[in-house]
Amino acid sequence: SHRGVLGQVTHGGRTLRLRDLTAHQAFTGYPPGHPPMRSLLAVPIRCAGPFRGNLYLAERDEADEFSTFDQQSLERFATQTAIAIDNLYLRDGSR
Fold first, then answer.
1. CA angle at residue 50 from 48 to 54, to 5 degrees?
2. Is the pLDDT of residue 37 over 70?
3. Which of 59, 10, 56, 3 is nearest to 31 (CA)?
């Protein structure tokens, strides 16, 4: 779905670092059984192929929000994830 906070990350390609995700304009509530969360760091996985996704962390333990260092670390991990996905897609597509 393109809706919701994570939809903006996955389909909009935006990184979000929020102290309180429930205050974000795109917040639509939690699905049934989902634990409540406040702090959120979400980054898109930017694949060259047709795949879209995101990585996110929630509920920063030692602070009210995620840091710039946390964001840079997760963005690097998302880049490596995209490379791995694209390599698998290219390998499997060549068969």
1. 80
2. yes
3. 3
User: What sign results for the dihedral spanned by CA atoms 87, 76, 62, 24?
Assistant: negative
pTM for this structure? Answer: 0.86
The string of DSSP codes covering 32-77 is TTPPP---EEEEEEE-SSS-EEEEEEE--SSSSS--HHHHHHHHHH
Phi, psi values for residue 93, rounded to 5°: -75, -15
Residue 84 near residue 91, CB atoms below 8 Å: no
Question: Which amino acid appears at position 18 of this protein?
Answer: L
- Provide the residue type at 50 as one letter: P
Q: What is the largest CA-CA distance in the chain?
A: 48
- CA distances 88 to 2, 4, 49, 75, 83, Å, are 25, 29, 10, 20, 9
